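Entry 14. Structure prediction run on the chain below.
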Amino acid sequence: MNQKSKRKSPIALIISISIVILIAILGSIYYKMNIAQPTPLIPTEQGNEEVTDKTIDTEQPEQPQDVGKVDITDKNGEQTNSKPIDQKNEQPSLEKPSTTPPSEDEQLENGYLIGQKPPTEPTYVKGVLIANKKNPLPASYNKGEDPKARAAFEKMAAAAKEEGIELVAFSGFRSYEYQKTLYDRYVNRDGKDAADRYSARPGYSEHQTGLAFDIGEKGREDLWLTSAFGESKAGQWLAQHCYEFGFILRYPKGKEDITGFMHESWHFRYLEGDMATKVYEAGVTLEEYLGIQ
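Output returned:
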């Protein structure tokens, strides 16, 4: 037994030495590849930290202070119960609108001319009464709802009813004084910058002309004053057929830098004659069609 062990010992010794040498070689390779090489520096970008996205509601009634409800009183002045809103429509995606720099002799605040004197007469362009952020109405302009506009709406509502849609003009004429009450309320609630995007200052509201209506569908009050109304059957029908009855969608999508107000799928303006058809076919806003600001 001793002789056999002696004969095997050289072989075992050789194997042991080979293993030690192999481990040494592998260790050397590992050291050169991973430890001896300097660690590359990864530069950090200062000032590029991710900022929490703060979305702004695209429609006035869908305010973060009243999540899930619409304050109908704010728009039509009549006391109604708050309506629930589908949560997916509360905060549509919104990009900050681009703005055109004012001329050297004009200074703007949220689209309004700073220091503009109250007018004594209303502004007409090509026979069209204008009320926007650059062209206010006199505080004394108080003609009430235009009977031609009302008649045109009733005719449009009758046509819509044949399609199974029952339209409601839930907000129409507003006086200068009432608009001031609304605007001040919004400013106190949301701040001036936010209010100026969805509510006109007194004297600057189309509702004071008596030619504008906020329109919704009866039985779908949950969609009144929301962007979701524009996606509904009633909203799409209005957008496609309103011009046939003398109306235009006054504040379309992507035109806030021109109209001064965010998209309102429910706000329609009456224009006499074939003006509405011309504006619709041109695919532009009233400001663009008339060549005004």
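The beta strands are 69-70, 83-84, 108-109, 112-113, 123-125, 128-130, 167-171, 212-217, 247-251, 264-270.
Filed with the rest of this week's runs.
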